[in-house]
Amino acid sequence: MDIDFKKSNGLVPVVTQEFGTNEVLMLGYMNQEALNLTVETNIVHYFSRSKNRIWKKGESSGHIQKLIDLKVDCDNDTILAIVEQVGNSACHTGAKSCFFKSYLGNNQLNIIESKIANLPTKYGDFDIKAYKDGCQEHLAIMSKDFKELEIPNVRIHSECLTGDSVGSLKCDCNQQLVLALELIAKEGGLVIYHRQEGRNIGLVNKINAYNLQDQGFNTVEANIELGFKADERDYRVVKYIFEDLGLDELKLITNNPKKIQFVESCGIKIKKRTPSITKTNQYNENYLKIKKEQMGHLL
Ligand SMILES: [Zn+2]
Fold it and tell me: Within a domain: residue 105?
């Protein structure tokens, strides 16, 4: 795809990303000239990040809809995704995975799988397998006896770099991860490390949300202020991993009713829910309160 951005006033190339055989290009803003360009370059999918949600092809969303109505066809190797600017926070590149997933639809995940490898850890010896889903790479961490288990313990752990790696006390992520790894080391099971940082708004946006939290916003309000939903996670790749690993019954380690719903929607029986309760501290007390009161977590 050959686009001269200098000639197209108002178009801001934000990120280019390889996605399987498709090159995805996100643009920050669109005007008449950009619209003409999109027609010339045969764009099929458009996303507008307005009104706190992602608009998909075929949905009514103002001027984006006009493009959609043109119904231009794209060749198989080129897809151009347009992301509309919202206030000063143009192009939520941290959430680019959302855009990929939006255009791929339910049955068109294009996952690249790794082989299985040994991973000795301080919690126990595990097998690991990685899955590449667009620009996100996820990990399945399995106890050595995983294949023989009738009803494995399973946690879908959402990536939190600040908690998991840096030991942030602002949340309970690190403690929950450790609890789950300890449990599957002891009783057998699986931890899916689902790399949708910051409830899938990405690290830059998450830190900006933290900045807003420093100013008094809570975790939900901060995301909304940045133009996101309280929770942008998308579990489709997790379903893929479930199928790949042949899960049909499990004991789910979670406090999150959305994860319970999701697992059930995959046709998997939850034989037991194991709460993932951690110690509160002075920094995460309010965060946990909001999780409970506004996100319905079973705390
Ligand atoms: Zn966290």
Answer: no
pLDDT, tens only, 233-249 = 889 899 999 999 999 99
66 CA → ligand 1 middle, Å:
40
Ligand 1: centre distance to CA 199 (Å): 9
CA of 123 to the centre of ligand 1 (A): 20
- The yes-or-no answer on residue 233 being catalytic is yes
* Among 91, 125, 156, residue at a domain's last position: 91
49, 195, 233, 236: the catalytic one is: 233
Domain boundary among 58, 91, 124: 91
Give residue for tokens 């995983």: 146
Residue 231: active-site member: yes
Q: What is the share, in percent, of the chain residues with pLDDT greater than 90? A: 46
Report which residue type is found at 292.
K
214 CA → ligand 1 middle, Å: 16
Q: Which of 231, 234, 236, 248 is catalytic?
A: 231
Tokens representing 251? 């004991």
How many structural domains does the chain have? 2
The string over 90-106, giving b where at least 16 C-beta atoms fall within 10 Å of a residue's C-beta and e elsewhere, is: bbbbbbbbbbbbbbbee
Range(s) of the domain holding residue 62: 5-91
Cβ neighbours of 107 (radius 10 Å):
6
